[in-house]
Amino acid sequence: MASVILQRARTLETMVDLLRQQAARFGDRTAYVYLDEQNGQQPISFRELDQRAKAIASRLSAELELGERVLLVYPAGLEFISAFFGCLYAGVVAVPATYPKPRRPLPRMASIARDSGARVALTTRQTLDTVDMSQQDEVVAAMHWMATDEVPSSEADDWNRPDIDAEQLAFLQYTSGSTSDPKGVMVSHGNLLANLEAIRQSFGIEVDLSGREKIATGVFWLPAYHDMGLIGGILTPLYVGGRSVLMAPAAFLQKPMRWLEAIDHYEATISGAPNFAYEYCVKRTKPEERAKLDFSNWQLAFCGAEPIRAETVRQFTEAFAASRFRPDAFYPCYGLAENTLLAAGSEHRRPPTILRVDRAALAEGNVEVAVNGSSDHVQELVGCGTAPAQHRVEILHPLTGQMCPEDVVGEIVLQGPSVAKGYFGRAEEINRNFHARVRGIEGEFLSTGDLGFFHRGELFVTGRLKDVIIIRGRNHYPQDIEATAESAHPALMPGAAFSVTVGDEEKLVVVNQIDRQFDKSEYSNVISVMRQAVAEQHELDVHAVVLIRQSSLPVTSSGKVQRSLTRDQYMEGKLRVVHEWKAPVRSASSNGQKRTEQNGQAARSNQLVGDVFGVEQTAERIEAWLEEWLVDRVGLDPADIHRDKPFAEFGVDSLTAVELSHELEEEFGVPLPPIVAWNYPTPAALSRYLAEQSIGQDDESPAAVEEPEAQAADEDLEALLAEIEGMSDEEAQRMLDGES
User: Fold this and answer.
1) pLDDT given for residue 583 in this prediction
2) Is CB count within 10 Å lower at the N or C end of the chain?
């Protein structure tokens, strides 16, 4: 069967050929199901998707030339998929972008629009009615916005296949770089087909092309604007003729059991997510809930997009053993947008490899397997398997340009048909990153910037080349130091470690978020404990420790720490500092940056109103509670809180909004959207709405923005995912559960 599918893959030249072939073969069979909290299951068949793509393409072809870029701005749902294929069917380049808040500009979307040069943007009618694009960047405001859900399917009759081949760009995948300088990875139709076949082979997916056998089913909540969500969750099921069950990321973040229950209900064979999601499921589910789940059909649980922790593998496997989750289903993998997605994957149906190595030797760039030894001197690494067929992974010595032997750390470089064309409009970076050479090997390689090594033929990823901290000639991996720092005290949350030049020496700086509820008088003690832990485990003196406000650490949309950006903000005095310690250095001069310490917090009221009051009295009491909540959770001065001032101006970010929603939901027993504070954007509007809901009246508040829960929940998902990953397990449980 594998040879049949491989032969089919070789006959396909573009993604257009793929969907048309699947539509002809499977017709009215369901391709995707979107789980909507309000409207239930929303399916679309292969034939319907083909028709929708043709209709949208006909509209685009009348306005655009081949190869032009088109911005895709969609809430979670099926319309994004139709629009994405509509772009491919028109021969234009899709540019997925993050979704904006109704009343707030999204700088990243504007930067992507500007960098890509897109002059047309696709979205839904609901979005255009809700989001005032004139409040966005001038480039965004000047674009031609098209509501694809208003394009009639009858326009499919006007479609003509574009003159494209495998080299034609399919989409730009913008990486999670800085907001002001995003990089669009140019992914061609050929890149996509090659990587989809690589995923199929690595995952061991077998499917009867006639559709007579049980089809492969996947369940996914990952954002469609992310490579893992788009390629892993949307395109791979289509490629193998399977079925993909989708839900909004916020639906998972609000209640991870939704994801797990869907895997059970739809008898999913494949699903996956970044490392933090598996940790989140362990912390946010109870033994009695797990006992009701049946994961006997779940054959592959892929894990990638960020460092994979051995402890996560163990905890999830043990916690869901009662759900019949098999250890050999856990599938660590390594990938990046510059290689379309997958670059290496574990052996199918084999438990993950967990390698214990000597920490000191690893710092020197060598791998010594640790048979014994204390945890302080041992580092655990999870293997990511090998490269798929037709692809190559090598370890390059950064100085000699030669391949490293096994058990020697170097830069991971890649070769194969999945390697993208480069970054859009950045010739210099293309030459630097996509045309690397390895002595003794023909052809060019992609420089990933990641460090790793091979052990017994399996790839292990250790960190980022540019993030490595070199002090007194020794390499120190920042993620190791960060793990030590965070675990040193319960109040410490994820942070970033990096080096700065002081005089003529490199010095270590550690930046950590701290629990907003922690006693500020104990900050000095926390720093002392952290410094001691780093010194003991890494033999390093910390030059400076910076405690910053919770949820303010720069991270990417998948939760990866942006160390370079954190370092830049530290040097420029732009971190949201609550406390700082710096070692006295004789030869160093101060940067002159002044950092302010935030004021204290007032005690939080733990009582809301009863249902014995009228709307006005209830609203007043809720408003008073909201004021106390803002003082406590956001650290505001009561004098600065005004009833008609937007929550956004109080500094209420996406995660804080989710926290507020859950606390209100718990007190009132009224189901609320995760970001209800954006729908009712002031204390006065929100209080009125909640008062009416609490006593059973219909909401007639003119301040309310009528918006479906699914759309509200999906707003600013990039920030939500990043901030959730930046939380400690304890806070994730406290903020987003409230049940345990």
Assistant:
1) 77
2) C
